[in-house]
Design goal:
heterodimer; A: about 575 residues; mainly alpha; two-stranded antiparallel sheet; B: about 55 residues; two-stranded antiparallel ribbon; 2 helices; rod-shaped
Chain lengths: ~575, ~55
């Protein structure tokens, strides 16, 4: 009996331990997504002023749980599955220390449950940021600490697997680009989790009375090293998955591996510094600190995203053109498999992440124009473009790929799966665009009542702001429907999907038991050969092999320039300089 | 550092960037130290140096 199995459809090799751990983490992530999605309905139907569904205290409880489940638990559980896949499966290597990996999973699961109990009891409605001096129950912080420790263990299992793969020479040359991207995510995760420990352990001790005082300004600096960097893990992870998906669907290879790796290096060095944009209006921190971390260092990370934004569709275009789809600028794109949710999910996430998430991110990272929209509903609109459409939709697309490959089941309700990325993204894009508009009009984020009913100091928003929040609510409901379609397809596939492997039963779908022993019939896969060099790499740039992508990049540039200067114009009207 | 080339007959010279990219623990070190210094330590020092209100 061997340690590995090979998926007959994709050719991927799965180590038995990694196989189960990937399933367990992915399933736990999807459960967290389900909780976040259900709670999202409460948030949007309350912010939709004419419905205003929930009372204030329930709204803040629901918003806290929605944020933590959506931004932390769903994403990080799934990312751990991605780390194990990118190390063990792609390097054809056994997973390092599977018992430690299970211990890490146990800590993450118990931490997530503990934190949810604290929040849903209604006594820890402190938002995801849990800014001091607001105090949550001790098990709110303890749950997050346990979750972080578990995730840190998983990161070191990933690093250990890289070491084993190198020692046992399971691959030639450098690690594949997708694994390098996952390495980038793991490095950012280590910084993120360490920052979380630095800020949450004293806060936990404060909540049980061992520490008398936590400085609010210091808390905010360190918390955002945890809170914003956790979203940078997502960026590195979903960009890696983009490269994986174009490789699997189109046989595409990066236009230049060197350039793509350099872009990931820029993420490693500079991406975390962008956390400073959350505290651009805080007193106590100098403009030098703010401008270095955002307007200088952050732009190097933005450059990296621009590189990926060019090379991912560019590589796909080159692959499509090599198959004869050369008519005009966009035949390669028109004839892409738009009915395949793996592709449609990936490509929509790429476009929305780049056009909306990227451009609004730069606006928020610029100290001056950040003032227009700081702490308005514009901020959630931005991170719904980056995290919900960028990351979550990419993870959904990957799930459609993994259902047959990892879980050995056929997709349940394939027509629903086909429509799901469109329904979800249509809803989310509506929500995002109208919340961006409302934010520009000054509508606050995390605010139960934009009508300020009964408030001593009130403010009258323009009628347009109410209309925009209502339309964003319609988009939100549609997005929840799209998210529900994903859950139905994913969970339905694990339970009712036709078995591609006879031993792929209910227990196996939920990682409670391995597939039949005879499935694992390979002791050690063949060494992963280094890919042959592409001729184009020998001769320099392949930029004009992808003219359609170049045109798309120019459209992005024009959108960015126009929108950026429109915001400076807004700023001049807020603060008349004449 | 050199590595055997694919046909195995002569060592392949790796560039500085290649060696950097292949040194995962050096990347881990850089990825933790740079934000710790420029974001956390610098930020905390500025807040710690604020005069206390009397």
């Amino acid at each position: 009996m061997g340690q590995f199995r090979q998926c007959p459809d994709s050719g991927f090799f799965f180590d038995k331990s990694a196989d189960r751990l990937m399933k367990a983490n992915a399933v736990a992530g999807i459960v967290a997504l389900l909780i976040a999605g259900v709670l999202a309905l409460g948030v949007i139907l309350t912010r939709w002023q004419s419905i205003h569904l929930l009372p204030a205290d329930t709204f803040y409880t629901v918003l806290t749980a929605h944020g933590i489940n959506g931004l932390i638990f769903w994403i990080i559980f799934f990312e751990i599955a991605v780390l194990y896949f990118a190390s063990s499966t792609l390097l054809r290597c056994r997973l390092a220390a599977p018992k430690w990996a299970w211990a890490g999973f146990g800590l993450m699961l118990s931490g997530a449950i503990m934190n949810n109990i604290a929040v849903l009891s209604g006594k820890s409605s402190v938002m995801m940021t849990s800014y001091v001096p607001m105090q949550a129950q001790p098990h709110f912080y303890l749950g997050l600490i346990l979750f972080a420790v578990g995730a840190l263990i998983a990161c070191f299992v990933f690093f250990g697997t890289l070491v084993i793969a190198k020692d046992e020479k399971t691959y030639e040359g450098s690690v594949p680009l997708v694994t390098f991207g996952a390495l980038t995510a793991a490095i950012i995760a280590v910084f993120t989790i360490a920052s979380g420990a630095i800020v949450l352990i004293p806060t936990f001790l404060w909540s049980i009375g061992y520490i008398a005082h936590i400085d609010a300004a210091m808390y905010r600096v360190i918390w955002w090293a945890f809170g914003h960097s956790s979203q940078q893990i997502n960026v590195a992870a979903h960009v890696s998955i983009w490269y994986l998906i174009i490789g699997v669907l189109f046989g595409a290879r990066p236009m230049s591996e060197k350039v793509s790796r350099f872009a990931f290096l820029l993420y490693i060095l500079f991406l975390q510094l962008a956390a400073a944009h959350h505290i651009l209006t805080d007193p106590g921190l100098s403009s030098e600190w703010k401008i270095f971390n955002t307007s200088y260092a952050m732009y190097l990370a933005v450059l990296a995203s621009l590189i990926h934004g060019l090379t991912v569709p560019g590589s796909m275009e080159v692959a499509q053109r090599s198959k004869g789809l050369t008519k005009g600028l966009f035949e390669w794109l028109r004839k892409a498999p738009w009915g395949n949710p793996v592709f449609s999910g990936f490509f929509i996430s790429l476009v929305v992440f780049g056009f909306i998430g990227g451009i609004t991110g730069v606006v928020m990272g610029t100290e001056q124009i950040n003032l227009i929209i700081h702490n308005t509903i514009y901020v959630p609109a931005h991170f719904h473009a980056t995290v919900v459409v960028g990351t979550s939709l990419t993870f959904m697309a990957l799930t459609y790929l993994l259902i047959p490959v990892l879980f050995r089941r056929q997709t349940f309700l394939p027509r629903v799966a086909q429509w799901q990325p469109y329904v979800f993204s249509a809803g989310m894009v509506t929500l995002i665009l109208f919340q961006l508009g409302a934010g520009t009009l000054g509508v606050s984020r995390r605010h139960w009542d934009m009508g300020f009913s009964g408030a001593t100091l009130s403010f009258d928003y323009a009628g347009t702001a109410y209309m925009m929040m209502a339309v964003s609510g319609v988009g939100g409901v549609l997005a929840v429907l799209g998210g529900g379609m994903f859950i139905v397809v994913a969970v339905g596939s694990l339970i009712f999907g036709k078995k591609l492997e006879p031993s792929a039963g209910f227990l196996q779908s939920f990682a409670l038991a391995p597939l039949a022993p005879e499935v694992y019939d390979i002791e050690q896969p063949e060494i992963l050969k280094r890919a042959e060099k592409l001729p184009v790499e020998e001769h320099g740039s392949s930029g004009f092999h992808a003219p359609g992508t170049f045109v798309l990049a120019m459209i992005l540039l024009v959108c960015f320039v126009v929108y950026y200067f429109i915001n400076w114009d807004y700023l001049s009207s807020v603060w008349p300089m004449s | 550092m050199a590595e055997q080339s694919r046909n195995g007959d002569r060592p392949e010279k790796l560039s500085f960037w290649q060696r950097l990219m292949d040194n995962h623990f050096l990347l881990l070190f850089l990825g933790v130290v740079i934000p710790t210094v420029f974001y956390i330590l610098w930020g905390i020092m500025e807040i710690a140096n604020l005069p206390i209100a009397e």
